[in-house]
Design a protein that fits this description.
This protein has 167 residues and is of the alpha/beta class. 18% of the residues lie in helices and 32% in strands. It has four helices and ten strands; from the N terminus they run E-E-H-E-H-E-E-E-H-E-E-E-E-H. The strands form two sheets. Strands 5-4-3-6-1-7-10-9 form an eight-stranded mixed sheet. It has a two-stranded antiparallel sheet with strand order 2-8. It starts with 7 loop residues before the first strand and ends with a helix.
């Protein structure tokens, strides 16, 4: 069965060795990447797993957060946060100017990447120690363009291969 492609955008930062996290945190601090992430996702709908959500230090008040968790009693009191228990609760698209951004963690990426139209991937040019790895994606996406490169990172935009087959 061919997965459906939605108007979703995935965004991630991945170390050279595939690491995206260590002990529920990001093992690097690269301001240019964090600024890139904020510029792309500010004011948008961000889909994050519970563990990823709990690592966010400051919520962007213009953004809407959909926090995916299996914990039925999980609750956050914040008008910009909605708790969901299934990827089926993620809107397929919006009727507003907001975009839907899949922001991790690993389980969320594993469940949603095949349905994302595009993947914006920052590759850190250094390997990091970690316990969480980004899922394989090159069978789903094709490199569309390189957006940015410096001594520390490369930012690339990938397009879901199924979109090529549709057009």
């Amino acid at each position: 069965m061919i997965p459906l492609i939605y108007n979703w955008f995935a965004i991630a930062a991945v170390a050279k060795n595939g690491v995206i996290g260590n002990k529920n945190s990001i093992p690097w601090n690269i301001p240019v990447d964090m600024n890139w992430f904020r510029s792309k996702t500010a004011g948008q709908i961000l889909v994050v797993g519970r563990k990823t959500f709990e690592t966010i230090k400051i919520l962007n008040p213009q953004s809407i957060y959909l926090v995916l968790t299996q914990k039925k009693d999980y609750n956050i009191i914040n008008k910009n946060v909605t708790i969901i228990n299934s990827i089926n609760q993620i809107p397929k698209s919006t009727k507003t100017n907001r975009q839907i951004w899949i922001c991790g963690g690993k389980q969320i990426y594993e469940q949603t990447l095949k349905s994302c139209s595009f993947l914006f991937l920052t590759t850190i040019k250094k390997a990091y120690k970690g316990d969480t790895y980004f899922p394989k994606f090159k069978h789903i996406f094709k490199l569309q363009t390189q957006i940015f490169e410096d001594d520390l990172i490369v930012i690339q935009k990938f397009k879901n291969k199924q979109l090529e087959e549709i057009n």
